[in-house]
Amino acid sequence: DTEVTQTPKHLVMGMTNKKSLKCEQHMGHRAMYWYKQKAKKPPELMFVYSYEKLSINESVPSRFSPECPNSSLLNLHLHALQPEDSALYLCASSQGESNQPQHFGDGTRLSIL
Amino acid sequence: AQSVTQLDSQVPVFEEAPVELRCNYSSSVSVYLFWYVQYPNQGLQLLLKYLSGSTLVKGINGFEAEFNKSQTSFHLRKPSVHISDTAEYFCAVRGGTSYGKLTFGQGTILTVHP
To answer: Looking at residues A39-43, what average pLDDT do you find?
Structure first.
């Protein structure tokens, strides 16, 4: 069982819809991450939150909007997505220091119609 | 900048045979190295990590890896594989700065045949 919980597991949405992906961890980690993974590819970093503040944005389009309400929760708000945004979205967390491994959730499989 | 190269995109092997998945990295600073496994329709699970100290690192599920600084390699090995080891394996490197970016290799699909 993963210690990082992501909901929903699957999401199908139209290009005009607004939806949110949620991620939760109770390991006391202070860094949280969003990754996008296309089929047969490695995960690509999207955002990093450190102590609830956005520290890295890897030039992600504004139709993806991250939010970190508290140290245990991380959201990814979606609006006006494109078909090419269909992918597995993975959340991860870590203690924060660079030598600490990231722990991943099982992801949300997103399909854009 | 740092990068990771996994030399084999696919590795087929028979059950109970040994396996080695190769990983080379490049970085201008001290790095920390990880191997992750991804089973179908799941997230990434940490197999093992090299932070410092002994260059031979043991992980879960009988896997081990050896850090070789001179060859900038971090190859993953298992002496006897099982059908259940069929999955995709990612080598990753993280740099020396706090909250540094985790850079992944392209992945190696290990297929264990009966």
So the answer is: 93
Quick: pLDDT tens for B5-17. 999 999 999 999 9
Residues of A in contact with B102 (CB under 8 A): 33, 45, 102
| A43 contacts on B by Cβ (under 8 Å) | 44, 90, 104
Q: What angle do CA B32, B84, A88 make, to 5 degrees?
A: 60
Q: Are B99 and A105 within 8 A, CB to CB?
A: no
Cβ B37 vs Cβ B44: under 8 Å: yes
**Could you check whether the bond before residue B12 is cis, i.e. omega within 30 degrees of 0?**
no
pLDDT at A94: 92
Using the beta-carbon criterion (under 8 Å), do A98 and B34 form an inter-chain contact?
no
In the DSSP assignment, the letter for residue B100 is P
Q: What is the Cα gyration radius of chain B?
A: 14
CB contact (8 A) between residue B43 and residue A104: yes
Q: Bigger pLDDT: B31 or B25? A: B25
- What count of other Cβ atoms lies within 10 Å of the Cβ of residue B14? 10
Does A5 or A100 have the greater pLDDT score? A5
Cα A27 to its chain centre, rounded Å, is: 17
Nearest chain B residue to A36 by CA distance is B43
Could you say which residues from 28 to 87 on chain A have a Cβ atom under 8 Å away from some Cβ of chain B?
A: 31, 33, 40-43, 45, 48, 50, 55-56
Confidence of residue A110 (pLDDT cuts 50, 70, 90): very high
Q: What is the pLDDT of residue B98?
A: 47
Nearest to B105 by CA among B20, B2, B3: B3
